[in-house]
Write a structure and sequence with these properties.
Elements: H1 12-20, E1 29-30, H2 41-57, H3 59-65, H4 67-81, E2 88-91, H5 94-103, E3 112-116, H6 121-134, E4 137-141, H7 152-162, E5 166-170, H8 182-192, E6 196-199, H9 211-214, E7 218-222, E8 234-238, H10 240-244, E9 257-261, E10 264-267, H11 281-297, H12 299-318, E11 323-325, E12 336-340, H13 345-354, E13 357-358, E14 360-363, H14 368-374, E15 378-382, H15 390-405
Parallel strand pairs: 1-13, 3-4, 3-5, 5-6, 6-7
Antiparallel strand pairs: 2-8, 7-8, 9-10, 11-12, 12-15, 14-15
The chain binds pyridoxal-5'-phosphate.
GO molecular function, one term: transaminase activity
Pfam families: Aminotran_5
Keywords: Aminotransferase, Transferase
Length: 409
């Protein structure tokens, strides 16, 4: 299948092998990798195999029999993001990981959360919920004048002036191809000793990620998007610094802590502190297989090909009358967003679906600041991945051109 001995190259042969591992690619153009990537065959087989073992010998017995592979979830994710396995906690979703991380911070009235105008919708809602319950203040750093993402100098000035309890940034938001300068933000956080939480949900599996280089204390992701893991999975990275300082989630269970006396518990040393006793083991093993699959190709080659396919698509869409490409920024990821004159969003997406192209819709509600700035109510999002082809990009651009020309009003 994949040649792991050399630096991976996307050639006609390797692409064919990759596509053979993703059977849906024969029948549909899957440009919804920012929603959920296609499971590679080894991931699917690993999961089915484990479910079968559970049925054959018992659920507890199966996870015990596969202890080494279970451990590989932590080892492979650690390899993917540049930390120790002990810094990784499994989570049921990126949002689950994020709320666990937030729950570990003992917010007090008046504490400041400093974030950006492009942080993910559920993160923004979580900050508002913290404001409602604890009276924290939410401060949004301004964007650069050209809409190309957060103004890091202004954000750093706010860090110095407001001394936030938490700095939070989303690497790539769900609603556009923007790539935020998370490592630059991180340098300021480290300089000032501020707690830094990064949402890397759309960048894991698309770009090399190094938590040391980013300088974050906490980092969250799903496994189902560009990493191509199963649904219902994600992880939380917890730095040694955060573990040593004794941060623990609000609700900690018998896996995250030891009940050492009637009135006393002790959190465990590792990021397992943020996990619970029960795991969906076939999912966990599927995530390990997905991480190994991505590592076997290499995040460098992926990060060259995947955004380049999106750039090719963006260029073609930008030339279509009635189509407005909405992505702004010096560096753009493989999330291509646009709206089309004369179409209702749902009808437009249905027309795209009917032509065998998987996509996703975003609405104003998903990005209150960004979509207000761009004065848009909705956008269609197309998100190719490395296993897609240039020919598919060209076909999709042709499909959008045809639909734009035949707008119902
Ligand atoms: C940037 C970003 N963060 C977080 C999430 C939430 O991920 P999950 O659905 O796994 O909770 C998403 C999902 O689209 C996302 O795009």
């Amino acid at each position: 299948m994949l040649d792991k001995s050399n630096v991976f190259e996307f050639t006609a042969e390797t692409l064919q092998a990759l596509r053979a591992d993703a059977p849906a690619s024969a029948s549909v153009i899957h440009f919804n990798n920012a929603g959920c990537g296609l499971l590679p065959r080894p991931v699917l087989e690993t999961m089915i195999d484990h479910l079968r073992l559970e049925a054959e010998i018992g659920g507890y017995e199966a996870s015990a029999a596969r202890a080494e592979q279970v451990r590989d979830f932590y080892v492979s994710i650690a390899e993917l993001i540049g930390c120790r396995p002990e810094n990784v906690a499994f989570a049921g979703s990126a949002t689950h990981a994020y709320s666990k991380a937030l729950s570990a911070i003992p917010f007090e009235p008046g504490d400041v959360i400093l974030t950006t105008r492009n942080d993910f919708i559920s993160n923004q809602i979580a900050f508002l919920a913290l404001r409602k319950r604890f009276g924290v203040e939410i401060v949004h750093a301004p964007d650069l004048p050209d809409g190309g993402g957060v103004d890091v100098a202004a954000m750093a000035a706010l860090m110095r002036a407001r001394r936030p309890r938490l700095v939070a940034a989303t690497h790539v938001p769900t609603n556009s191809g923007l790539v935020q300068p998370i490592a630059e933000i991180g340098r300021h956080c480290r300089e000032l000793g501020l707690l830094y939480l990064v949402d890397a949900c759309q960048s894991i599996g698309q770009y090399p990620i190094d938590v040391e280089e980013i300088g974050c204390d906490l980092l969250t992701s799903t496994c189902r998007k560009f990493l191509r893991g199963p649904r219902g999975s994600g992880f939380l990275y917890v730095s040694d610094r955060v573990l040593a300082e004794g941060y623990e989630p609000l609700f900690i269970d018998m896996y995250g802590a030891r009940w050492v006396a009637g009135d006393q518990y002790e959190p465990v040393e590792s990021a397992a502190r943020f996990e619970e006793w029960e795991f969906p083991y076939s999912t966990l093993l599927g995530c390990a297989a997905a991480a190994r699959y991505a590592l076997s190709i290499g995040l460098e080659p992926i990060s060259r090909r995947t955004p380049a396919l999106a750039a090719r698509l963006r260029d073609q869409l930008a030339a279509i009358p009635g189509v407005r490409v909405l992505d702004r920024g010096a560096q753009l990821a493989a999330l291509v967003t646009f709206d089309v004159e004369g179409w209702d969003p749902q009808r437009f997406k249905s027309a795209v679906d009917a032509r065998g192209v998987n996509s996703a819709l975003s609405f104003r509600e998903f990005a209150q600041y960004d979509f207000a700035d761009k004065d848009v109510e909705w956008a269609l999002r197309l998100s190719p991945h490395y296993y897609n082809t240039e020919a598919e990009v060209d076909t999709v651009a042709g499909t959008i051109a045809e639909l734009a020309k035949s707008a119902p009003r």
